[in-house]
Structures are given as C-alpha cells and as structure tokens.
Q: What sequence folds into this?
C-alpha cells in the first residue's frame, strides 16, 4: 500500500513538472467575408496563427451580419482561442520578443 502511494505521488509530481513551464494566453482572430462559413474559418485560422508556436483551442466565437440598404452583404466573425505554449516553444517565443 505504501508503495502505491509513493508511485502516485511520483506520477503527480511528473504531471505538475510537465505543465510548470507553460503559458496560457487568449488570442483573437477576425475576418469579414460574404459567406458566414468563410468568415468563421478565416477568423479561426487567424487566431490559430496568432497563437503560434502554441496549441490553439477554440473558445468564444461570434458573427454579425453586415447590412447595406437592409440587405446582408457580408459577415464579420471573431474567434477567441486559448493558446498553450510550453517548454522550448515558450523559450523561443520570448527569445523572438526580445529581438
């Protein structure tokens, strides 16, 4: 029983250490297009690009119709993502910001 407890503590310590050198930020992408799906996809792509070299996960997204003479002429979409950057990628990110 004591052996299992020690194993569990060591596993938990490894999980904690694995995530201790990570950073989470929120990035946003925006795009305007005539078709709503194109605007959604492009906003996601821009947000994910802003997240590089981290891993992007979708958060909130929204779209509004663009009206001209009471007619929908386009859609403006915004996508927020949670960016998680860890380890060497995080070090490279800050090296790039220092230059």
A:
């Amino acid at each position: 029983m004591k052996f299992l407890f020690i194993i569990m503590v060591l596993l938990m310590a490894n999980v904690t250490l694995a995530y201790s050198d990570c950073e989470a930020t929120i990035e946003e992408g925006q795009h305007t297009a005539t078709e709503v799906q194109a605007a959604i996809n492009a906003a996601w792509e821009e947000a994910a690009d802003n997240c590089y070299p981290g891993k992007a996960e979708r958060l909130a997204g929204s779209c509004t119709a663009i009206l001209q003479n009471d007619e929908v002429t386009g859609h403006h979409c915004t996508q927020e993502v949670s960016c998680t950057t860890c380890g060497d990628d995080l070090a490279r990110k800050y090296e790039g910001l220092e230059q």
